[in-house]
Amino acid sequence: MFIDELVKRIKEKKSNVVVGLDPRIESIPKIVKDQCFEKYGNTLKAVGKAILGFNKEIIDYVYDIVPAVKPQIAFYEQYGLEGLKAYIETCKYAKEKGLVVIGDIKRGDIGSTSEAYSNAHLGNVNIEGVIHETFAVDSITVNPYMGGDTLEAFIKEINEKDKGMFVLVKTSNKGSGQLQDLEVAGKKIYEVVAELVDEIGKQSLGKCGYSSIGAVVGATYKEQSKSLRKKMPKTYFLVPGYGAQGGTAEDIIHCFNEDGLGAVINSSRGIIFAYKNAGYTEEKYGEAARTEALKMRDAINKVLIANGKCYY
Ligand SMILES: O=C(O)c1cc(=O)[nH]c(=O)n1[C@@H]1O[C@H](COP(=O)(O)O)[C@@H](O)[C@H]1O
């Protein structure tokens, strides 16, 4: 099952770090961009090629020290088909390197439409008997705002094809409380969503004891993560907001269970654009990303061990 694969890689690499592949063209080193722009001009194709080249180098430098990557599709989609080609190739390359790929797509719609999303991002399409995979990755992020029925198509695919999903529960952004913290019958909305995720997760439990149906819980809300951990003991958390959004290793400690498992922590800009930090040059962007991913891994492991939560 998806979750067993993820936990296996976490233990193998001794790392809970997810590298967010969110390539912002303005931050991609000039040495990468120049080559592509010279060859293809100022075109969408040039950007697609630059993104792919950049991502491959990052993957080459981190694949042996992290369990997973999370490309956020918006950074690719904005460049149309050329961007989406780069997304597909990035996901393929990461898989070839043994990484779990979490497609950050945040989808969700009425059942029949979710089914189409699910075919695209988890399953496949059948063209007159010929099966094609389009964007298929190991796991995706989904938005539950339209209700539990909109998640069913994804769950079907998860159980049939050993895939996974992370449902938005308490997001990392400043405004997440505006709707998610509203109270209904004595419970916050995000708590109601957490109960829903915990319940539907029971049908996708792996051998490791966790579910392939996980939750997104922001690193920027430490207290909430504590209560959510208790509410959803078998749910794996995908925790964004580390680094660039201010989250630290101390902030995410409650996302983990006593077994030191239960959460993967994402950092995107903080890792992939670490070459901007003091002591690096553009050429060394891969090395800078690796150093930063190792720093993050060690900082998280240190806090886990200090709290008696070693998982390896
Ligand atoms: O689902 C997500 O990954 C997500 C949920 C959330 O609550 N907050 C959040 O920042 N994210 C994503 O996590 C990544 C964070 O990027 P950095 O702030 O650069 O580390 C982006 O891809 C966001 O879209």
UniProtKB/TrEMBL annotation:
This is Orotidine 5'-phosphate decarboxylase. Its EC number is 4.1.1.23. The active site is at K106 (proton donor). Pathway: Pyrimidine metabolism; UMP biosynthesis via de novo pathway; UMP from orotate: step 2/2. Keywords: Decarboxylase, Lyase, Pyrimidine biosynthesis. The keyword Nuclease does not apply. Residues 103-171 form the S1 motif domain. Belongs to the OMP decarboxylase family. Type 2 subfamily. It comes from the Bacteria. NCBIfam families: pyrF_sub2 (TIGR02127). One of its GO terms (molecular function) is orotidine-5'-phosphate decarboxylase activity. It is an enzyme of class 4 (lyase). It comes from Crassaminicella indica. PANTHER family: OROTIDINE 5'-PHOSPHATE DECARBOXYLASE. It catalyses: orotidine 5'-phosphate + H(+) = UMP + CO2. The gene is pyrF. InterPro entries: OMPdecase_type-2 (IPR011995), OMPdeCOase_dom (IPR001754), S1_domain (IPR003029).
